[in-house]
Amino acid sequence: MDFLIQRLPLYIDGAWITIQLTFGGCALAFVLAMVFGIMGTIRHWLPRAISTVYVEVFRGIAALVLMFWMAFALPQLSGFRLDDMFAAILALGLNVGAYGAEVVRSSINAVPKAQVEATVALNLSWFQRTRLVVLPQAWAQMLPTFGNLVIELMKATAVVYLIGVADLTAVAQNMRESTGETVVAFIGAFILYYLIAQVLIFGMRMLERRANRKLGRTPPRGKSLKSLAQSTPVGSAGGTF
Amino acid sequence: MWDFQWTLQILPDLLGALGTTVQITFLSYLIALVLGLLIAIARRTPFFGAVLHAATEFIRTTPLVIQLVFVFLLTPAHITPMTVGVVVLGVHYAAYTAEVYRSGIEGVAKGQWEAARALSLPARRTWGAIVLPQAIRKVIPALGNYLIATFKDTPLLIAIGVAELLTEAQRIGSASFRVVEVYTVVGFLFLLVSIPSAILLRRLERRYAAV
Amino acid sequence: MPPSDTPVNAESPGVEGQSLIVFDDVVKRFGDLTVLDDLNFSVAPGERVTLIGPSGSGKTTILRLLMTLEKITEGVIWVGGEPFSHMRRGQGLVRASEGYMRERRKRIGMVFQQFNLFPNMSVRQNITEAPVHVLGTPKDEANARAKELLDLVGLGEKIDAHPTQLSGGQQQRVAIARALAMQPEILLLDEVTSALDPELVAGVLDVLREVAETTDITMLCVTHEMGFARDVSHRVLMFDQGQIAEEGPPEQIFGDPKEDRTKSFLRSVLDNGF
Questions:
Q1: Contact residues, chain A, for C179 at CB < 8 Å
Q2: Residue ranges, chain B, pLDDT below 50
Q3: Which PANTHER family match (chain A) (predicted)?
């Protein structure tokens, strides 16, 4: 235990890199997922085709292969060398974004057709319909799977030490090499990964709860704690007031 | 910029490594399928089930690559990296397939268990003839997803020096200092396997969704 | 190429100034199924028309065509003397583009059987969202109007409630307020009480009676509520197999139907306790 406590600052540094990679990758993946996911729901064939190509290509290539390509092949091809952190974030974001785009697409398609018809009856434009009605409703459906993808992305960051980024796994490796204490050195990293994952899971649950509350699926604020604790889904139950 | 001669020259080696990668994928997946099922069943026991739940949760929330390296460092030298890789990959995905089986088992109607009880079937028959056939049928597409996922995680075995596709590519690359062709071909080989698999899987989904 | 894609006669068939809505040889097919079979009818401004008939007779399809939720197979629909399902090009007519339809359906509103309130918005937002974003109404004005409309439908105090907190009948009354907020010239009512528990039907119908009495909105109403149809409508159209079997003022259709099909339909509806 002393071993770990003494070297805690080093682990924290590594964990901080892991966290930065996770957030950077998630931000990029989120933007790509939204853009290509929404494109996948457009009736015209061209945006749909572009979306399909993006999804199949970047889902099909392993993130690590993509990372190697960006870190090693791209500099030779273009003479331009990406920062290792940036290459890692790019590869992770492109890869997870492709999974996310599928989630966005299917969640949008799962919004009841009747909701879209109501927007036609109110004469909303495609853009207004998407922004005001479709996405807010699809959002609640996306979140559980997004939660899984966030964890997958966090775990996938651990390969970055292979292209020379000093993340949590790299710290564990260095620690083992400098002290010879394999078990202890790795347990430190495992614990931190586990904690990061738990925090991410908690955060995504909160987002999910908020999204469901917005759709009226749980009692809204302003009710007594007791009724919140009972927390039965209101659903279509009528005449409560 | 792009050297076709060189591409053709490295292709046989890369295809050979792809073969190894596919082998690793199937062996690991076999472990994941069998072990995952055992875990899903064992998780229904009171104490041991809770322990298994915590263990699979831990496996699923920590990175595969660090699990690989950790186990590799702790195994005796006479066990090959290949064996370690296959087993760790298999156990990692067993933690996922166990969840899939569990949802399938929970999806079997309560009446089926009660009917089995009413017929005084022994536990072995209840599971083997009634619950599992129904549960597994429903989760076949979800299980198929993890075959593709296993394949896409095989490059991580580079961390312990298994001669899979990416390791081989790195070897060729560092021997020749020409990496553009090598890594690009690896990317295409990945697409060559994963896009047809995805199409097959979609067919599978449609077929089992229709039932 | 389907016949309706070729330019057809661009002369408005309705007598100028007398018909707000004209269905001109309208055919609607879903695959092999013909839902509307060469249908012709017109509706005058301010007229309230009720469509009755057995299910599958094409009543709802008429409303959905007017809301551009379905595409017409053959024929032309005219609204306000201008083509609606089609648009003018040169001397002829071609299928309406999305932009054209958007412009033309501005003053048409619809209330749905299943209410279709937006669950991601409060009652207030449900009502103000379209006026603010489509008509460009200032927010304050839209809010004030929402309050007025909710008072009209008897739900003034529910303005900040969430749709899921309301009963079906209350949701439907909000949906009516939402449609009215767009100041429609034409209001389409698609079996608006069919999804409601029996005890909630009267409240919704009372609101609609009020709307009918106090405004001159043209209404097309598909309903099984024969009492309501009799009270509110100027004219009743009896549909059967995609065609009008009989039409006339409500007193005649309900009191002295001529066609056997109308008689048997009315008998079956009354037997079923509608």
A1: 121-122
A2: none
A3: L-CYSTINE TRANSPORT SYSTEM PERMEASE PROTEIN TCYL, MEMBRANE COMPONENT OF AMINO ACID ABC TRANSPORTER
- CA angle, B48 then B51 then B57, to 5°: 140
Cα–Cα nearest to C176, from C231, C255, C109? C109
pLDDT at A227 over 70: no
Dihedral pair phi/psi, residue A215, rounded to 5° = -90, 10
Q: Choose the CATH number for C3-271 among 3.40.50.261, 3.30.110.30, 3.40.50.720, 3.40.50.300.
A: 3.40.50.300
**Cβ contacts of C176 on chain A, cutoff 8 Å:** none
8 Å CB contact between B167 and B17: yes
| Residue C60 identity (one-letter amino acid) | T
Inform me whether the pLDDT recorded for C3 exceeds 70.
no
Measured between CB atoms, does C67 come within 8 Å of chain A? yes
Euclidean distance between CA atoms C123 and C151, whole angstroms: 13
Look at the domain B4-210 and name its fold: MetI-like fold (1.10.3720)
- Asked whether the beta carbons of A215 and C119 are under 8 A apart, the reply is yes
CA R_g for chain C: 19
Report, in angstroms and rounded to the nearest whole number, the Rg of chain A calculated over CA atoms: 22
Q: Alpha-carbon distance A33 to C98, whole Å? A: 27
User: Would you say residue A44 has pLDDT above 60?
Assistant: yes
Please classify residue B121 by burial: count the beta carbons closer than 10 Å to its beta carbon, then call 0-12 exposed, 13-18 middle and 19+ buried: middle
C261: closest CA of chain A, how far (Å): 32
pLDDT at C91 over 90: no
Instruction: Give the residue extent of every domain in chain B.
Output: 4-210
Q: What is the DSSP string of A79-103?
A: S----HHHHHHHHHHHHHHHHHHHH
C147 lies within 8 A of chain A by CB: no
Q: Which residues from chain A sit within 8 angstroms of residue C163, using beta carbons?
A: 216
Quote the pLDDT of residue A241.
27
A167 contact partners, CB below 8 Å, separation of at least 6: A14, A17, A18, A21, A157, A158, A160, A161
The contacts of residue C227 (CB under 8 Å, 6+ apart) are none
- Phi and psi of C223, rounded to 5°? -155, 160
First to last CA, chain B: 52
Phi, psi of C118 (to 5 degrees): -85, 115
- Identify residue B80 by its one-letter amino acid code: T
pTM of the shown model: 0.85
CATH class, range A2-113+123-217: mainly alpha
Amino acid at position A193, single letter: Y
